[in-house]
UniProtKB/TrEMBL annotation:
<feature type="binding site">
    <location>
        <position position="252"/>
    </location>
    <ligand>
        <name>Mg(2+)</name>
    </ligand>
</feature>
<feature type="site" description="Important for catalysis">
    <location>
        <position position="192"/>
    </location>
</feature>
<keyword id="KW-0460">Magnesium</keyword>
<comment type="pathway">
    <text>Amino-acid biosynthesis; L-leucine biosynthesis; L-leucine from 3-methyl-2-oxobutanoate: step 3/4.</text>
</comment>
<feature type="site" description="Important for catalysis">
    <location>
        <position position="142"/>
    </location>
</feature>
<keyword id="KW-0479">Metal-binding</keyword>
<dbReference type="GO" id="GO:0009098">
    <property type="term" value="P:L-leucine biosynthetic process"/>
</dbReference>
<keyword id="KW-0100">Branched-chain amino acid biosynthesis</keyword>
<feature type="domain" description="Isopropylmalate dehydrogenase-like">
    <location>
        <begin position="5"/>
        <end position="359"/>
    </location>
</feature>
<dbReference type="GO" id="GO:0051287">
    <property type="term" value="F:NAD binding"/>
</dbReference>
<dbReference type="InterPro" id="IPR019818">
    <property type="entry name" value="IsoCit/isopropylmalate_DH_CS"/>
</dbReference>
<keyword id="KW-0464">Manganese</keyword>
<feature type="binding site">
    <location>
        <position position="224"/>
    </location>
    <ligand>
        <name>substrate</name>
    </ligand>
</feature>
<dbReference type="Pfam" id="PF00180">
    <property type="entry name" value="Iso_dh"/>
</dbReference>
<feature type="binding site">
    <location>
        <position position="248"/>
    </location>
    <ligand>
        <name>Mg(2+)</name>
    </ligand>
</feature>
<keyword id="KW-0520">NAD</keyword>
<dbReference type="InterPro" id="IPR024084">
    <property type="entry name" value="IsoPropMal-DH-like_dom"/>
</dbReference>
Amino acid sequence: MSNPSILILPGDGIGPEVMAEVRKVITWFGDKRDIQFDVSEDLVGGAAYDAHGTPLHDDTMAKAQAVDAVLLGAVGGPKYDVLDFSVKPERGLLRLRKEMDLFSNLRPAQCFDALADFSSLKKDVVAGLDIMIVRELTSGIYFGEPRGIIEEGNERVGINTQRYTESEIERVARSAFELAMRRDKKLCSMEKANVMESGILWREVVTEVSKDYPEVELSHMYADAGAMQLCRWPKQFDVIVTDNLFGDLLSDAAAMLTGSLGMLPSASLGAPMDNGRPKAMYEPVHGSAPDIAGEGKANPIACILSFAMALRYSFDLGDEATRLESAINTVLEKGVRTADLLGEEGVTPVSTSGMGDAIIVAL
Ligand code: ATP
Ligand code: MG
């Protein structure tokens, strides 16, 4: 059997810096655990524009379609702000998501014990927190037609349409149930069925899909009440599934329960491939952070945790993912901090590569 394949797209800004640390981790798994990956690397975003005049070359797109998992750093930066919309770095990312049809966006909110004091919330609210928000990514109000700004009488009207087909709801629901099966078997679906037709259909379809997953305990919540519960007592949840708009808001709110942007990974999954695993792209939630790019200050943990998600969801190496996450917790417990995680006085921050090295030692 051939080795599992990964396409690395470091991108722009701090993307290449944090990805260099993931490279160390991949090498460690090869050397010490004899887990080999076929790793290839290519350009995306501004870096691809500089080389090819397009934020994503067709060859790169074809490679992304062929591998088991794509690992992406970040795209964009002030240098590219002047570019035409059609070749902006972000378009490269959007093309990947669209052509790979990555409809299910997984955003964990996980609190490492060592950082429980760092959150803006009370320690007992976040300590040990480990939840996952599944956001529908390719449909809903951001894409529905009709849309636009039209003239009506003597004023303008801004129009967007929330639209979900049964099959769109079903496939993201299924991916959330599959995830719940591998976790605590608890799924909460959030919509606004009280005021939205798409919410009524959402609730119906999710309930129907639940019949295939009798072991999973399903609940429903209105998204506004869900937002409140998420802040009040987030540990009541395991997996949350919701639409594109609500997921955008809820996953950002949930993310802030846990501290720094430099700690947050994500996965975007599509339909199952021949090997049964979903098409997948993994990336840190943060952007290219132009304000600190090139200074060796970036926290590589979000990107390394994104690789841990790849181990778990694309390569069926859940134990190895846990090993990596524990190593990160060990490092944090020892007080090793990049600049974004500094809270206490008297701690000298480590560099991006200093953090990567410490994680390798802990592994
Ligand atoms: P984008 O439009 O690409 O999302 P953004 O400006 O919205 O970019 P980021 O690029 O993520 O967001 O940066 C937001 C802030 O967080 C910046 O001050 C940046 O330095 C900081 N930041 C982001 N990622 C990291 C990281 N990995 N380590 C340390 N600081 C980070
Ligand atoms: Mg941003």
